[in-house]
What we know:
Blueprint: E1 2-7, E2 23-29, E3 32-41, E4 55-60, E5 63-77, E6 89-95, H1 98-102, E7 122-128, H2 129-140, E8 154-156, E9 165-170, H3 175-185, E10 190-196, E11 199-205, E12 215-216, E13 223-231, E14 237-241, E15 252-256, H4 260-263, E16 267-271, H5 278-291, E17 295-302, E18 319-323, E19 329-342, E20 346-354, H6 362-376
Parallel strand pairs: 8-11, 12-18, 14-16
Antiparallel strand pairs: 1-4, 2-3, 2-19, 3-6, 4-5, 5-6, 7-9, 10-11, 13-17, 14-15, 17-20, 18-19, 19-20
Helix pairs in contact: 2-3
Amino acid sequence: MINLLVTDRNLNVIGDPISRFTEVDVTLQHNEPAAGLVTVPSDGVTTAQMSPGNRLVVIRDKAVFASGPITQPGEQSWSADGEDSGRGTTTIAFVGDLASVAAEVAYPDPAHAITAQAAARREFAVVNAEVAMRALLSENVGPTALTARRIPRLALGALAGVGSPVTMGFRLDYLGDALRSIALAGGGLGFRVRQSGTSLLFEVFAPRNLTGTVRFSRGLGNLLSYAYRPEAPTATVAIVGDGSGEGTSRVWAESVAPAAATWGRMVAVVDRRDTDSATEIAQAGAEALTEGAESAQLETVTVDTDTCRYGIDYDLGDRVSVALNDGVAVSDIVRAVNLNASPDGGEVVTATVGTQTATTDQAIVRKLREYARRLGRLEAI
Length: 381
C-alpha cells in the first residue's frame, strides 16, 4: 500500500496526505540519491503543498520508501479527453534526501567560511572509513557545520562499527564523490540518508552477503525477467601522477589489475597533483581500476513473495544471487530498486544487480564527476 505526504524542509507535514495517484515511479540507488515521479489528479494537491522547498515522502507498507526535496513542483497537464481530462493531472518530481548532501562540497577548513579558509585540504590520515565519512558529513552539512550550511533535521545515525582505515584528502570535492571514494577505499561500504520520525539520519553500513538466503529464479516464482550484459573492462592499468613536482621531477605510479592478463593493457591516467601521499596515490589507482573493471550488468524484474520481499528480506546494497537460464548463478550488489505503482497495475518492484557500473546514470555522470574531481584537485594558488 502506497501513501504520499508533503512536508516542509523541517519535516512538518503540510496539508492532508495525497490519497489519490495515477502513478508512482521511484528509483533508489546504492550510494546515490533516489529519484522519483508522482502523478496525481490536479485537484488532489494544494498550492501550499507545491511551494518551493517542500519535500515528498513515499510510504510503502507503513515504512518510508523514499523521501526528499521536490524538484519539479507540479507540472500540469490537461486535455479534453483521455487520462488528463477533467481536472487534469499534476506531476511531481523529487530526489532523495541524499541529493542535498551530494550537492555540497567538502571545505578544506569546514570550521570557517569559504572566504576565510585556513587550510589547503581536509585530510584524514589512517582514520576508520566510517568515522571519516561521518566527520566529513557532520562538519560540512550536519550538526557541527556552519549554521548556513546545515541541512535541516540532518543527524548522524548510530555508529555501525564498519570499514577499514583510510588516508585521504579533499579540496572542494562534491560531498557525494568524496563519500563514495572513502566508502570504496574503506572496504566497499554503503551510505544513505533516511527519514526516521522527525530526523534525517546519515548512516554508513557494510553490505550484507545474502547470496545463500536471497535468490531470484524462475523456479522460485520471484523472477519475471532479466537482461544480462557482460562488458569488457575499460581500464586494466592505472597510471597516477602525484603533486611532488613538474616535468621530469614528477613521480608516477602504476597499478595493474589481474584482468590485464586476459584483456590486455587498457590505460587510465589519473591526475592527483593535489597530494604526494603514497597511500592516496595507491587508493586512486585502485579506484580507477574498480571503476573501469569488467562489468556484468544484470537488470531483473522481480516480484515480492512470502519468502523474499524488498525491505524485509533484502535491501539496497545487499549482495544477492540470481539464477540465469543456463544454470549459472550471478551474485552481486543490489545497485538500484525501482518501485512502480498505479491503481490498476498494482505494485511492481524492479531490481538492478551488478558491478559498480551497473547503474542507470552510466557514462555522462561519470564524466561530469571526473570534471568535478579535476577542478577540486587543482593546486591552491
